Every structure is written in C-alpha cells, then in structure tokens.
Amino acid sequence: MEGEDVVVPQPETEGAQSTPINMYEGLLLVVAVMFIVGMYYYNKRRKLA
C-alpha cells in the first residue's frame, strides 16, 4: 500500500518544483538547516566534553 503512493507521481509535487519557493517550503528549509547545524554542534560539543 505504501509503495503505490511512491510510484504514482502527483502533479502537485511536480508543479511545486517549477514554481519559486513559497513561504511553507522556505520555512521547512530553514527548520531542516537549523536541525542539521544543531545536531552537528551538539555532537561536536559532546565529544569535547
């Protein structure tokens, strides 16, 4: 059941790629970057301690 959703391409996702980044995608990108940077510094600080 889960595999069927992945195989079938949805027009909504394809259209979002061609359009410029909207507010939601921009916020999601910022959250992802902050999460990665936070995990990097957290692991780096934990190793030094």
TrEMBL record:
Highest taxon above the source species: Bacteria
The entry's keywords: Membrane, Transmembrane, Transmembrane helix
Residue ranges crossing the lipid bilayer per the database entry: 21-42
Protein name per the record: LPXTG cell wall anchor domain-containing protein
Native species: Bergeyella porcorum
Lineage per the UniProt record: Bacteria, Pseudomonadati, Bacteroidota, Flavobacteriia, Flavobacteriales
